[in-house]
Amino acid sequence: MSTETGRESRRSGALVSVMRWMENLSDTQYAYLLLIPVFVLLGIVALYPLLRTFELSLFKLSADFSSTTFVGAGNYIELFTGEKNRFLPGGTTFLPDGFSMSAMLNSALVVTVIFAVVSVLFETLIGLGQALILDQDFYGRRWIRAAIIIPWAVPIVIQGMIFFLMFNANVGFLTPPLADLGLLAPTNTLNDTASATFIIIVADIWKTSAFMALLILAGLQSIDRGLYDVAKVAGATKWQQFKLITFPLILPTIGVAVLFRSVQAMRVYGIIDTVSSCTVVPSLSCMVVATFTTREGTSAAIAFVTAAIIGAVVMGLIVWQGEDAI
């Protein structure tokens, strides 16, 4: 009996010591303590695969996949010097091999950057406009909000099929009017790199503007309405209210929304594969998928470079928004 009592006393004593130790932690130390499980999980699901990818990028597989050869930075050197271009699908290159429009649109890096910049820019502007409208009080607002969400809820495969059919040479109806405006090639539209890139950007804007609108709307809803009452009493116009109250207060929300969308846009693959093909519209993710089964080292090198670019974009946006933005 005394032995059991002693064991229980030691357990209680250890638990009390831990509780007292936690109580003496500062707020910052306690916050980091709570974040430890998140860091561990992040290391398992994100950091380890990234390190494993970097490790694979340092090797080259034999033709029969029976052995590997350590090449160090060889895969990266060949990638940036164009030596890997012959292993990429179609006429795809990693970096542009010239300054012509054709060379630029054959570069997976250039196409990915163009897609990310243009789509995120227009999604942010359209999403901001939608959010400003939905923030107003009018009849049927709930139904309009529900309708705006519909494109975002459409799966990528269905979205791609919709735009594929709209611009298909046999059944499509949007190619002729847009071709008359000079925006698309009049024939073989989905196999023309410039036209297919334009269509894919439009498809992404159509789908993801709702995502931006919802995030920005959440920021608008958090603004104290009393600020607008004070501004009205002071004689501020609608534009002055937006410039001095609305925009500064939702800017951190816009920064987070742009951050999320930029990361996703840099990994574009599904919409390209469903609307056109990776040989027509190259992207970094397309290159990773196309080379994975035959040249694992090349695929890993491209994937790691893509991750590094995404990391640089994320850090740049965080620095631009400031540490309090996220």
Query: What global shape is seen?
Result: flat
At CATH level 2, the architecture of the largest domain is Orthogonal Bundle
Strand order of the largest sheet: 1-2
- Rg computed from alpha carbons, rounded to a whole number of angstroms: 26 Å
Sheet bearing the most strands, described?
A: 2 strands, antiparallel
Name the CATH homologous superfamily of the largest domain: MetI-like
The average pLDDT score comes to 83
Helix percent band? over 70%
Unreliable stretches (pLDDT < 50, length at least 5) are: none
List the helices and strands and how they pair.
Layout: H1 2-23, H2 27-56, E1 59-61, E2 68-70, H3 74-81, H4 101-106, H5 108-134, H6 141-153, H7 156-166, H8 175-180, H9 193-221, H10 226-233, H11 238-265, H12 270-275, H13 284-292, H14 296-321
Antiparallel strand pairs: 1-2
In short:
It is built from 14 helices and two strands. The chain has helices at 2-23, 27-56, 74-81, 101-106, 108-134, 141-153, 156-166, 175-180, 193-221, 226-233, 238-265, 270-275, 284-292, 296-321; strands spanning 59-61, 68-70. A hairpin with a 6-residue loop joins β1 (59-61) and β2.
